[in-house]
Structure formats: C-alpha cells, structure tokens
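Chapter review: from sequence to fold.
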Amino acid sequence: MPKRFAGGYPVALPAPAENDRLSRSLAMGWVSVMSVFPGLILWLILLVVCWPLALLALILYPLVWLVLLPFRLVGISVDAVFELLGAILRLPARLLRGPRSA
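The token string follows.
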C-alpha cells in the first residue's frame, strides 16, 4: 500500500486543486452523463438507418437488464466472499505485525 500524507492522497498523485475541473465534474456527475453519450449517438444513428430495430432495442434493453440482474448480484456476492476469505487469511500476519506507527 502506498504511503499517504496529510489529506489522505497517495504520494504518487498530487492533491486536486479547489478549482480542478475534473474534481468538480466528478462531484456534479458529469462524467457519468458523458459515458451515456456515445450510446445515445449510436442509438440515434440506428434510429435513422433502421427505426424498427432501434425501437426493438429500446424495448428489449430494460428486459435484458432485468434478466442479467441476478448474475450481477451473484458476482457482487462472490466478490464479497473472496474479500472476506482474503481478510481472514491475512489476519494472522496483521496481528503479528503489531500496531502501525503514525
């Protein structure tokens, strides 16, 4: 784990400035909006080229998302189990290491 300095930021990365554009856009959620934009453009192109297929995709997308939702939940659960097993396996080493110095 990298050593940390005041503020909790890793040594390799500088702390973001107060007027940093990326920090503000992350706080406002613009990055997540911009990740949807290419899909919207592709769907609009499909709408122009073949509108029945675009409407079918618009109707089927939520249904496919609902069908795949249990697999996502299983993946999250399996990941949590592996994290727990890793923490249990590392516990003796953490106990033998002793208290951390500040």
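Two observations follow directly from the output. The CA atoms of residues 18 and 93 lie 39 Å apart. The chain has a mean pLDDT of 80.
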